[in-house]
Write the structure tokens for this entry.
Amino acid sequence: MSAPPLLEVRDLTVSFSTREGVVHAVTEMNLDLTPGETLAIVGESGSGKSQMLLSLLGLTAGNAHITGTALFKGEDLLGATAHRLNQIRGAQIGFVFQDPMTSLNPYLTVGLQLTEPLTLHRRIDRAAAASQAVEMLRAVHITEPEQRMQQYPHELSGGMRQRVAIAMGLICRPEILIADEPTTALDVTVQAEVLALLREIRQQFGTAVILVTHDLGVIAELADRVNVMYAGRIVETGTVDDIFYRCRHPYTEALKRSIPQLTEVRPERLEAIVGSPPNALHLPPGCAFAPRCPYRLECCDKSVPPLVDIGGGHRKACFYEGPLKSDVEQTA
Amino acid sequence: MSEPILTVRDLRVYFELRGDGWLSSPRVLRAVDGVSFDLGQSETLGIVGESGCGKSTLARAVLGLVPVTSGEVHFGGKDLAHLDARQMREQRRHLQIIFQDPLASLDPRMTVGQIIAEPLRSFFPRMTADERQSKVLDIMGHVGLVPEQINRYPHEFSGGQAQRIGIARALILRPEVVVCDEPVSALDVSIKAQIVNLLVDLQAGFGLSLLFIAHDLASVRHVSRRVMVLYLGKIMELAPWDEIYSAPRHPYTQALIQAIPPADPRRARSNRPKPLGGEIPSPVTPPSGCVFRTRCPYAIERCSLETPVLRQIGASLVACHLAEQIQALPKPANPSEGQINPL
């Protein structure tokens, strides 16, 4: 990593005070994003990935308690005023959410929604904004963009809506695009098109992308680096190849092994992970994955393993140092 | 295959929509449009397709949960499509369903025990409380629930556990046919495999015949003996599980497989064929001839004029005029080529 990070998150902790107690959504999380790279964050529901993103943008619920720093080009987002965040959101950091039907306003035309960020952030006149919007619709491969500008979201198909949402996220040419499960709500053939589009857009505009997903196929397709989250912590981080071919954390391994693969042969049974993810209200004192882990050691129940470098930026948070099942199979 | 347990012939489910104006004639949405298949004894038949392909409507029509427009559903010597409500109710205990969203399908004010026992109360009202209780506990054991959970409420359970409750409720009457409608789609990644394995075990243990519906081809293929691919209410292909991946014959099946991103970065970086363009047409105004032709890379004039019939090629049934020629073509990219199994 030679380029200075665009986004540098240090010791980010997000918790919520509730009547039942304190919910630990994100704990001591570090994250670096360099210009133009795609960083994937993989985790299950409740792993803290969405709360992490929301906290960066000042969008968490009122009872959130956030500590740490998140430097975006040297400026701490966590300490920024609401006014400053308004200037950054949509302009320098764009978003695409899971469900385009809920992220687009049903009462406004596509054109109005696309030009609003431009007139707001860039202070250019309507005509200039409209021509940029048409150009952006063309960039996301929407046919007849001039006509689409006059249409409402419900007149578009699901795939087209998500293209419009992507165009909206990119319209101000942000340096970071945050994509939260951008293809999860789409059909597989439409997903393939949107993935191809995201790849192309990234090349064309050089946008750095934070991609949140639980789909390992989507990650393999788009990511340069991957953070694996479990119960609010990063348990493993590395390049996409580190995570797919040289993973060192039992959770990462278990996740990969539990999905059915489309290969010539099929196993008798899937390798399921036993148990369920922990409740963020009552996290175990040690490693949160220990109760489900096949390699569990005695120390795992007592203290939380730190995230340590195991070579070239590949880090894992696990006390177990022996071989994993996958290693044994690879050498066999 | 021995005598099929369920035989579906030319099943159609049409919904009438309002016309554009109040004088214009109503429009017809063809959700299921002439589907025929057999479900073998103790067979798991997978049904895949994208949203709007009619897979859920097909399953619900088989169970009599949506009105059938025409066609036959033979089960136990009766045509379910033409039974009255009372006769259908009698058959229901042999045909059960597991829903996608486990929490939404459980009554939040009933305990787990009450939820699982409800089918018994409704079909065997004279059964004693003790007998009911012992049957409930027995089935709870089969699905991996512990007896202490019998008095808990659904909200106290995670998605995976709640799905176990839904499965127990579906199986308590010891049905012969169970429809699983996207049973793992709403579950967390680390839980999906548990439930898939459970369904496979129960299928074998109880000798169930399953219709397993999902949009995820990999899961469907994992559990099924044969896989049916639906598009706009019609069967495109029905093939043994191994052939559907190694020798897909219909261009839509091929496109579906190519669209799934492999969990393998090296393969993702290699040049793969362009994704299928276009969108699924409206089932109100389906294309003439072959419904897939508007997105098919191989379509010729004949495809717009003549509807392809489902015909046997090898071990598969395929509805494509050009299936033989397409098979003979060199594959655009061999899916297993250069594959390094990351696992």
